[in-house]
Design a protein that fits this description.
By secondary structure, the protein is α/β, with parallel strands linked by helices. Helix content is 36%, strand content 19%. Strands 1-2-3-4-5-6 form a six-stranded parallel beta sheet. Helix 1 crosses helix 2.
Length: 156
Amino acid sequence: WHFIGPLQSNKTRLVAEHFDWVHSIDRLKIAQRLNDQRPEGMPALQVCIQVNISGESTKSGVQPAEVAGLAQAISGLGRLKLRGLMAIPERLDHPAKQSEAFAALRAWLEATNLGLSPEKQMDQLSMGMSADLELAVAQGASWLRVGTAIFGHRAG
């Protein structure tokens, strides 16, 4: 199971016990709680740091300048395996601009990896949705959110 979305401190135990992946780590406190609450017999919880690459106040995620520090801290937690970065960029009508946002996330992953030991380096990019999945894949996306393509637009 994959968890995507804001994670409150009071929900970390459920996620630590029942999920394989968390794509939306945006605070060290959440990572530490997941690490502490991950049962010893389970494999390491695979995690991605959520980055607010568009700087939108309505979106969760760390600022790009905070990625390296958070990655270093998470890489030292024994029950978590830092796998990559996740972002949901602002929806832009111009494909080249949308592609630039995905390329920026890839560049931050590559730059952050320079400060991590080889066995701790990230290899996953969780980015792109139904409307822009081709652009995300072209920039190296490993994980896509394609709910609208499968289920249609949300009612309401």
